[in-house]
């Protein structure tokens, strides 16, 4: 008897697939619902083990995905056929009757394909948040599809690999709140309207490379447990990656950002590569933590760039870049070397409040071509609010007071300006203790896996940085002769 049921199901499957090829829309939609029902039947068959159920259901899933991937000629006229009437210029100019005929066919086909998407989506959602649905154990291949209807795959759970590569989305697309246990491939795709990937979790490798986003794109608050590739992409609208966690390598290199790009408040456990990119609008990387190498070299920033309030546990490479607007590197901690050579700053560059625990390079000795250029003003290493020039650098490095009068700087036999001294043993001990605390935080950071723990450890070194800044101001500010106590020291 069980075998008889299996044969009967396969016969119904064959007939339903034939219906998908019908010229009549009602026949095609009938075939869709027959196939959907057959998948559910296979999964509920108590005479089969789970592996057999999934194998039989996968055959039907493949047919449904193939229908979504199949070309539809009228999709190329999406812009016109989504209008209420023919446009004055276009394919349907002076072809009004043909327009309304094609528009009706366009809508009916969109409804059929949208029905497939909705049936799949409903079964990718479990009863609880981030839990699998009844169809989560199938593989889905939508690669090369043209979606001429809105796509909603929010809060979906994929236990197996899913492919959306090489696809075109004519309407809005929503993938937010989803979980991908297997690989997720969205590479080489075009998004003409908004794209939402908010608050998603990727347990395996994810690929978004070589894609074009013509409208707003949101990837914020997501977690990537494995490597992820966003390289070679173009963002014509705003894009948001803020508050995300990358536990393995991530590459954004070779990308172009036409509007604002926001990466702030993110955590990078391993290498992060943003090199060879161009930013036309404001770019925000502030408040982030980089545990491995952070590479931003050979990039062009045409608007404001903010890297401030960040922690770099590994090396940071900003070399060979051009900054047209204001650039902020302040209030940050650089545990390893920072390379800012071969760069040009057309606007203000602010490094004030930062701690460099290792070498910082603006150029290499003996190689003039490697040095960076500051065309507007010298980099700021000082407290802009109080205008206190300490021996950590000053605005234009001229040691002038606010009234414009300059003072010569005389040095003693130790080579230090008069009135200055080397750190005392007590001061050295204080500074060593603070750097030890930063080092301990680094080790703890490696062990913490939850997002809340990350946030605590991100704030710890920044808080220590603030303490060191206050201490540094106190022990290094020079009292200029001729100024009374209570006046600004310079």
Task: Give me the secondary-structure topology.
Blueprint lengths: L1 H19 L4 H20 L5 H20 L8 H4 L14 H27 L17 E2 L4 E2 L3 E2 L4 E2 L3 E2 L4 E2 L3 E2 L4 E2 L3 E2 L4 E2 L3 E2 L4 E2 L3 E2 L4 E2 L3 E2 L4 E2 L3 E2 L4 E2 L3 E2 L4 E2 L3 E2 L4 E2 L3 E2 L4 E2 L3 E2 L4 E2 L3 E2 L4 E2 L3 E2 L4 E2 L3 E2 L4 E2 L3 E2 L4 E2 L3 E2 L4 E2 L3 E2 L4 E2 L3 E2 L4 E2 L3 E2 L11 E2 L50 H23 L3 H26 L14
Parallel strand pairs: 1-5, 2-6, 3-7, 4-8, 5-9, 6-10, 7-11, 8-12, 9-13, 10-14, 11-15, 12-16, 13-17, 14-18, 15-19, 16-20, 17-21, 18-22, 19-23, 20-24, 21-25, 22-26, 23-27, 24-28, 25-29, 26-30, 27-31, 28-32, 29-33, 30-34, 31-35, 32-36, 33-37, 34-38, 35-39, 36-40, 37-41, 38-42
The general outline is: elongated
Please bin the fraction of helical residues: 25-40%
Strand share of the residues?
15-25%
Cα end-to-end separation: 95 Å
Task: Tell me what you see in this structure.
By secondary structure, this protein is of the alpha/beta class. The protein has a domain at 230-478. Helices cover 28% and strands 17% of the residues. It contains 7 helices and 42 strands. An 11-stranded parallel β-sheet has the order 1-5-9-13-17-21-25-29-33-37-41. Helix 2 (25-44) packs antiparallel against helix 3 (50-69) and helix 6 runs antiparallel to helix 7 (451-476). It is elongated.
């Amino acid at each position: 008897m069980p075998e008889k049921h299996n044969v009967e199901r396969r016969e119904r499957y064959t007939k339903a697939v034939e219906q998908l090829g019908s010229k009549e829309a009602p026949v095609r939609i009938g075939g869709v619902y027959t196939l959907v029902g057959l998948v559910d039947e296979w999964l509920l068959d108590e005479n089969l083990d789970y592996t057999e159920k999934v194998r039989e259901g996968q055959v039907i899933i493949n047919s449904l995905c193939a229908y979504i991937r199949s070309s539809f000629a009228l999709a190329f006229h999406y812009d016109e056929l989504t209008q209420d009437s023919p446009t004055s210029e276009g394919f349907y100019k002076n072809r009004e009757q043909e327009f309304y005929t094609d528009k009706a066919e366009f809508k009916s086909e969109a409804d059929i394909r949208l029905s497939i998407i909705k049936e799949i989506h409903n079964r990718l959602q479990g009863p609880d948040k981030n839990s699998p649905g009844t169809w989560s154990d199938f593989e889905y291949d939508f690669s090369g599809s043209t979606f001429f209807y809105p796509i909603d795959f929010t809060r979906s759970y994929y236990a197996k690999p899913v492919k959306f590569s090489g696809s075109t989305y004519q309407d809005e697309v929503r993938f937010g709140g989803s979980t991908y246990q297997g690989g997720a491939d969205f590479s080489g795709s075009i998004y003409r309207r908004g794209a939402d990937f908010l608050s998603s979790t990727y347990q395996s490798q994810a690929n978004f490379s070589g894609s074009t986003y013509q409208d707003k794109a949101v990837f914020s608050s997501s977690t990537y447990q494995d490597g992820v590739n966003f390289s070679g992409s173009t963002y014509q609208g705003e894009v948001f990656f803020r508050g995300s966690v990358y536990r393995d390598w991530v590459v954004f290199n070779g990308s172009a950002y036409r509007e604002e790009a926001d990466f702030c408040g993110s955590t990078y456990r391993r290498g992060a590569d943003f090199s060879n990119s161009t930013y036309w609008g404001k770019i925000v990387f502030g408040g982030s933590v980089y545990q491995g190498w952070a590479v931003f070299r050979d990039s062009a920033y045409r608007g404001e760039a903010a890297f401030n309030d960040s922690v770099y546990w590994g090396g940071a490479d900003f070399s060979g870049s051009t900054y047209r607007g204001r650039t902020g590197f302040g209030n940050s901690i650089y545990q390893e070397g920072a390379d800012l050579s071969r760069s040009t700053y057309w606007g203000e560059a602010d490094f004030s409040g930062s701690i460099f625990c290792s070498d910082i390079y603006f150029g290499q000795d003996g190689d003039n071509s490697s040095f960076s250029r500051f065309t507007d003003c010298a980099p700021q290493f000082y407290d802009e609010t109080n205008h206190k020039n300490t021996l950590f650098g000053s605005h234009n490095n001229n040691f002038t007071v606010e009234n414009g009068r300059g003072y010569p700087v005389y040095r003693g036999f130790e080579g230090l300006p008069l009135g200055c001294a080397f750190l005392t043993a007590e001061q050295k001990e204080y500074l060593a203790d603070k750097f030890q605390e930063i080092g301990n935080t680094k080790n703890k950071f490696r062990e913490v896996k939850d997002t809340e723990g990350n946030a605590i450890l991100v704030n710890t070194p920044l808080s220590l940085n603030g303490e060191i800044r206050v201490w540094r101001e106190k022990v290094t500010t020079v009292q200029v002769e001729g100024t009374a106590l209570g006046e600004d020291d310079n």
